[in-house]
Amino acid sequence: MRFFLLSCISVVSAVLAVIVFKPFFAGGRAEPDNAALWNPVLAGEKGSLDSPSYTFKCQPVINEDQPDFTLTVPIVNQTDRVVEFQQISTSCGCSKSTLDAYVLRAGDRTTLRISLNLHGRSGMQRISAILQEKSGPSWRYVIEVPVFPRARISQSAERLSVPRCQPQSVLEGSATIELFADRRSALPELTGLRVSDASCQAEHQAPEELEIATNIWVRRVPVRFSLTAPSKPGAFCATVTATYRCSDEQRDCSLDISGVVLSLFEVAPPYVFLSHADNDKLPSQKVIISRTDGEPISVETVPRAETDDIDVKILPNSRGSSVILELSLRPSALARTIWGEAVLKTNHGKQPTIRVPFAAVPKKQ
Q: Do the Cβ atoms of 324 and 286 come closer than 8 Å?
């Protein structure tokens, strides 16, 4: 008898547990319009029946395959009161939600539809839909969608920055082109690489194919590149473009490689601004140029300006380790604004040309 009573108590406890912990979406589960690609999983309940909160972890998707995604969620009023929703809001402007019925009696159910625009999006997308009751409580539903592009370079923002470098130095690096599809047979195929100029070279290696998530396959193609930095100091950029075939269409994805070439000369001041004084004397400015390694400077050509409105000359007190230029404004430049660069040619093997930016404004009348 005692064993029989214990068995009955265990059965009753199990039934009560099922009733008490029954998922909020009783009578059905949330399914999107394309149930073959999407299988939301209820992650858990937070809060009470009066103010529930749920998270749906959806299967990954490629944004081109599901650019306009809609998830339908059955809503059940498991409270013992009439629920009247006042408004629905979402956490992102790229999403919207609608509700079939705003008033639910105890035990009634309706459908919440959450739409998400996946055009151009990638990474984990997390959207919340908030159902606000007139009486105050809010019901919260969170959708988490891992989104993949059709193709991408494995560097963030498709841009790779190389370290600051000496002029004409050779820089080497690597990246990975990733091509995605929902099945292995549909994976795009890399058909070629091209570079923006002759200073850059790139080649790809053998690809590998992996299933990284449910209905998500990737073809990873390692790419190695070498880039010869220019002689001119300052920022530079080169582009490696990968061409791939998706179905019968040829497409491109690119990797920008940017860096900064160091100057081998110190220029003081680094730029010249010629403004008119109150007197009639034409303005001028001295510029001291020296090598960063302390070696002497050998000038090969007479310095010149890019415009005839500026005179450029080397002062006689220049020493071997430095050169003093003087930039002077000619009378022809008094009536208009001018700008350009003063150019000095040296015998330096890696960075022979020195450029000094200048500008001048017209004389005030």
A: yes
184-188: list long-range contacts, CB under 8 Å, 24+ apart. Answer: 184/209, 184/211, 184/217, 186/217, 187/217, 187/218, 187/219, 188/150, 188/151, 188/219, 188/244, 188/245, 188/246, 188/251
Res. 363 pLDDT band, cuts 50 70 90: low
pLDDT score at 155 = 57
Q: Is the dihedral of CA 270, 274, 279, 280 positive or negative?
A: positive
Nearest-angstrom CA–CA distance, 240 and 226: 11
Q: Would the pTM of this model clear 0.85, i.e. be above it?
A: no
| Residue 365: predicted pLDDT | 55
pLDDT digits (tens, 9 = 90+) for 82-98: 999 999 998 888 888 99
Residue of 292, 302, 281 lying closest to 345 (CA atoms): 302
DSSP classification of residue 346 = B
DSSP 3: H
CB 261 within 8 A of CB 207: no
The percent of residues in the chain predicted with pLDDT above 70, rounded, is 81
Separation CA 108–CA 87 (nearest Å): 18
Beta strands in 27-122 (DSSP E): 31-32, 41-46, 53-57, 61-62, 68-76, 83-90, 95-99, 103-104, 109-117
Task: In whole angstroms, give the CA distance from residue 193 to residue 150.
Answer: 17
Interval 103-140: pLDDT, tens = 999 999 999 998 899 998 999 999 899 999 998 888 98
SS3 263: coil
Question: 220 with 208: CB under 8 angstroms?
Answer: yes
Going by the DSSP 8-state scheme, the letter that residue 296 receives in this structure is P
